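Record 1 of the preview.
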Amino acid sequence: MDMMNLPSANPVILVCTTLLCALAFLYIRSRSSRLSSSLPPSPRRLPIIGNLHQLGASAHEALHTLSLKHGPLMLLHFGSVPTYIVSSGDLAMQVMKTREAGFSGKPVTKASLILLQGGADVLLHPRWTQTKKVSVTGLLSLKKVQSLQFIREEEVASLVSNIRSLVSDGTIDKRSHQRQVNVSNMSLKLASTILSRALLGLKSTADGGRESNKIIGDLSKQAITLLHEKFAVGNFIPALSWLDHLRGLTGEAEKVSQAIHEFLDRAIDERETHQQSDAGDEKRNDDRKYFVDILLELQKKDMVIGHRLTRKDIRAILLILFLGGFDSSATNLEWAMAELVKNPRVMKKLQDEIRGVVGKKSEIFQTDLDQMEYLKCVIKETLRLHATTLAVRRSTEDVNVGGYKILANANVLINIWAIHRDPAVWERPLEFVPERFLDAGYTYLGQDQKYFPFGLGRGICPGIQFAMFGSEYSLANFLCWFNWELPEGMSVSNLDMSSNDIAAHRNVPLYLVPVHPAN
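->
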C-alpha cells in the first residue's frame, strides 16, 4: 500500500482527541478512586480465585484472623463473587435489622437449586415472606409447638428406654466404640424422627415408622453435606462449573434431590388421603394436624398472597424447614453433651437441678422445664459457642454501613462465631460458663447485638420455639435418667472439640458411656 495516499491528520483534531481521552481517563480514575476509598478494607487477592486461598480449613476462624488486621467490615472476593465480612455486633445489627431492607436477598447455590428442584423461587419470591408468617402461626407458634409435645415425649421415651436396656443388659462397654452410645448419631436420629413426624405426619418409632424415619434422615444428612461441606467451584467461578460435573458433585446432588422429592411426594399423598378420609369427621382433633396438613389446606384456600401453592412449592417449603430444623436441633444437643462431659462441675449442677425438680416422678413434664433455669442457661451457652458460625445475606441495593459502602448484588457474611467470642463483650469468652446467662436478660429472639444464635430481624429462624422445646426436653431426660462418662482411655483434655464448617458440625463423632445413677 502506498503510504503517501493516506489522508493527512488534522493537528487540531489530534489535540482535541488527546485532551478528551486524557479527561476521560482522569474522570474514570477519579471515580474509581472515590469508589475504592468508600469501600471497606480488602486483603490483596489473586487472579481468578480472589481470596479463596485465605480461608483455609476453618473459614470462620480464618475470617476472624483477617478481621483483626483489616477491621470488623472488610471486602473479600471469593472467585468472582464480592463478599463483605461483618465481624462486630453493632455492624451485624445494621445489616440484619436496622437496614435489613437493603439486605433482604439470599445467595442461591447450585446445590440448593438442584435440591429444591426449581422450588428455590419460593425463597426469592415476595410470597415467601407471607409463607414464613403462615408457618409461624401454623406449626411454629407456641400453641402448635405445645400441641405437638406428644411427639417429643414419645420419641424421647423410646430412646431413653433403649439406652436403659443397653445399660441393664451389659451391652455398654467403656473399651469399645461399638458398645458405646454414639451421641452424634443418636442426636441426628432423634431430631430426624421428631421433625419427620411433626412436618410430614410419619409414624412413630414404636408404631413401625423407624424405617421411613431412617430414610429421610439419611437423605437429609446427604443433602446437608452437599450444602455445607462439599466445595462447589461453580458457586464462585461460574466459568469453571464444568469441574463440578467432572467431580460428580452435580450428579450426586441430582440423585439425592430425586430421592428426597420422591419420598416427600409419597408422604404428601398419604396426608391427602388421610384428609379425605377425615373430611366428614367432626370429632377430628385439629391439634394433631401436622405441618403438611396446614400447607395442603392453604393450597386449597389460595391463602398465600392469592397464589395457589403448587406441589413443588410445598415440597420445597417442607424440605427447607426439615433441613434447617434437623441440622440445628441435632447439632445443639450433641454440643451440649460434649460441653457437659468436658465440664463435670456444670454437668453435676445441671443434674442436681433437673433431678431436684423431677423428684420421684417417672417422667418429665413441660411444667417441669419451666422451673429449670440453669438448663436454659446451659443451652444458651452452648449456642453462644456452637451456633451456626456464619449468617448469610445478599445486598439488593447500595447501602452505607459503618462508614463504608456495601454495593448491591454482593454476598454478606456475618461471622457469628467471632461475635459470640468477642473479648470486649464476653468475659472469659472461650470458656463454657452457663452462669453468665443467669439474670442477664439474653433471649434467643435476636434482640441484642451481642447474642443472636438464630439471627436478627426478619431473617431470624422461625422455628426457634420448636427447636428450644426439643433441646430442653431431650437434654433434661438424658441427664435426669443417666450419668455420662467418657470412654476408657479418654480424658477431658484430649476430647476433640473442633468444628470446621458453617453449620458447626463436630469434626469427629461424640461417643459417651451412659451409667445408671447410684440413687
